[in-house]
Amino acid sequence: MLSGACGGDDAATTRTSGGDTAATTDATTTDATATDATTTDATTTGDGSSDSSSDATTAGTGDGDGDGDGDGDGFCGDGLLDPLEACDDGNSDETDTCTTLCLPPACDDGIVSGDETDLDCGGGCSPCGLGAACIDGGDCQALGCAAGQCAYPTSCLDLLAQNPLIGDGLYDLDPDGEGGVAPFTASCDMTTDGGGWFRLSLSDTDNLIVAELAVDNPWHKCADDSAKHFAWITEDQVTPDVSPGVNQITDVNLVYQNPELVVDYTGPQMDAIRDAISELHPTTRMVALTSDDDNGDYQNTLTAGHEVYVQGKTPNFILLTPGDDGNCGGGADWPLANSQSGYYLWSQDPALSIVDGQTGLTDDDLPGLMPQDLLPYKVRLVVYTGGGVAFGYEQQVILVR
Predict the structure, then answer these.
(1) What is the DSSP letter of 353?
(2) How close are the terminal C-alpha atoms of the chain, in Å?
(3) Is the entire prediction scored with pTM above 0.85?
(4) With contact defined as beta carbons under 8 Å apart, do 392 and 287 qualify?
(5) Domain range spanning residue 349?
(6) Contact between residue 204 and residue 192 where contact means Cβ atoms under 8 Å apart
(7) Which of 327, 319, 326, 325 shows the shortest CA–CA distance to 302?
(8) How far is CA 358 from CA 61, 159, 307, 349, in A?
(9) What number of H helices and E strands is found in the chain?
(10) Backbone angles phi, psi at 358, to 5 degrees
(11) DSSP assignment, residue 122?
(12) Residue 343 lies in a domain
C-alpha cells in the first residue's frame, strides 16, 4: 500500500517497502524555484536484498575511450571504429582489407597480412628469402618456389615456367637442388622458340676443336668451305688446335663456359646441367667433319682415315663420323675439283640428325644422340692421313634445355 503527501509544487519521494510494512517520507521544497530533488526508489526484495535505480548515469559505463558515446572503453576487433583505429571489421582475418591491428595490411606491420606469403614479404611486398613460404617464383628473391618454399629454380626452363614474363639474362640456378652443387650463375635464353634454354659455348680457340696432319697438309684441303656448318667463322679464320705433322689420336677434355660472363663452368656444374637437359636447339646441333679422308675406314681397320668420337655420360666413345669422304688432293695439288669434306650434324632427334658433303650415307643412317651425350665430356680426334677433322656446334652459342 502506498501513501504520500505533497506540499507546494515539487516533492522528492523515497519509497521503501519490506514485508507488510510501508514507510513514506515526504520532503517539500521551500521555494518553487529550487532545484528538483532526485527521486530514488529502493525496494527490498523478499530475500532481504534491495534494488536501487537512479536517473543518474549507471556506475562503470563512463566514457573511458573518449569517443563521447558513453559506451565505455572500446577495443580493436569489436567491430566499432574507435579513435586511433583506421578500421575495425571485427574479425581475425589478416588477408582482408583490415588486419587485427585495426590497420590496413602493410609490408612492415610485423604480421603476415594482405597478399603476403610470409612475414612482410611476398605478394605485393618485397620478395622473400630462401625457405620462406611462397605461391610462385614471383614471391621469392631467388625467383623459384618449390613445394611452397622459396628455392632456386633448377633450370632456365623451370625459371621461365614460374616467371612467364622474365627476359633473357643471367640467373642463379640450382639444377641438382639443395644439398648438391651450390647454386651458380647461368645465362638463359627466354625468347627463342618458347625459351628456357641454357646458353653455353665451348671454351676453346674459335669455339671449336680442330686437328690436322700438318700446316702444309691442312684440315681444309677440300674444295668446299670446311667451316661452312660453323656459322660464325670461315675456314681461313680457324687456328687448328693440333698440327703435329704425323698421324695422331688426340683426346681433348671439353670445357664449357657461360658465354655472357666468359667464365668456365666447373665439372660438377656441368654434370648438374647435363642432368637437367633433354634437347639441343635445332640450330645448334653438334657438328663433326672429316676432310681428305681418302675413303679411309679407321673405325674398322684402325689403320687409315679420319674419325671423330665423343664420350658422354656413358663410358664408351660414340662415333660421330660413320661414313667416308674422298681424296681432296695431295700436299701439292689440293684442292681437287668438286672435292668435299664429310659433315655430320647431330641432334637428340633422329629426324634432325643429317649428313652433308661426301659421306656415302643418308640422313637415315644417323640415329640421333641420347640426351646425356649432347654435352660430351671428351672428344677424340683421329687423323691418319692428310687433311684433318673438326668438332663443334653449328653456332658459337649452344642452346640446350
Answers:
(1) -
(2) 102
(3) no
(4) yes
(5) 201-265+277-400
(6) no
(7) 319
(8) 104, 43, 14, 22
(9) 3, 21
(10) -100, 110
(11) S
(12) yes
The larger pLDDT score, comparing residue 47 to residue 121, is at 121
The one-letter amino acid code at 56 reads: A
Closest CA to 139 of 152, 156, 122: 122
Burial classification of residue 372, based on how many CB atoms lie within 10 Å of its CB (0-12 exposed, 13-18 middle, 19 or more buried): middle
Assigned C-alpha cell, 175: 639444377
Cell numbers 524555484: residue: 33
DSSP string, 136-199: SGGGBTTS-EETTEE---SSHHHHHHH-TT--SEEEEE-TT-TTSSPPEEEEEE-SGGG--EEE
With H, G, I as helix, E, B as strand and everything else as coil, classify residue 117.
Answer: coil
- From CA 5, how far away is CA 16, in angstroms rounded? 15
Contacts of 32 (CB under 8 A, 6+ apart): 8, 9, 10
pLDDT at 103 over 90: no
Please give the tally of structural domains in the chain.
Answer: 1
Q: Looking at the DSSP assignment, which residues form a beta bridge with residue 188?
A: 169, 198
Sign of the dihedral defined by the CA atoms of residues 394, 395, 398, 401, in that order: negative
The C-alpha cell at 186 is 647461368
Do β-strands 40-44 and 11-18 pair in parallel, antiparallel, or remain unpaired? Answer: parallel
Cα separation, 290 vs 174, in Å, equals 38
Domain-located, residue 379: yes
Query: Which of 292, 288, 324, 308 lies closest to 381, judged by CA?
Result: 308
DSSP 67: S
pLDDT of residue 30: 37
- Quote the CA–CA distance of 229 and 287 in Å, as a whole number: 7
Residue 325 to residue 265: CA distance in whole angstroms: 36
Q: Could you tell me if residue 107 is inside a domain?
A: no
Radius of gyration of the chain (CA): 45
Instruction: Give CA torsion, residues 203, 206, 210, 212, to 10 deg.
Output: -140
Most distant pair of Cα atoms in the chain: their distance: 151
Residue 388 lies inside a defined structural domain of this protein: yes
Strand, helix or coil at 121?
strand
pLDDT at 69: 57
Q: What is the DSSP letter of 57?
A: P
Of 101-115, 218-232, 361-375, the poorest mean pLDDT is in 101-115
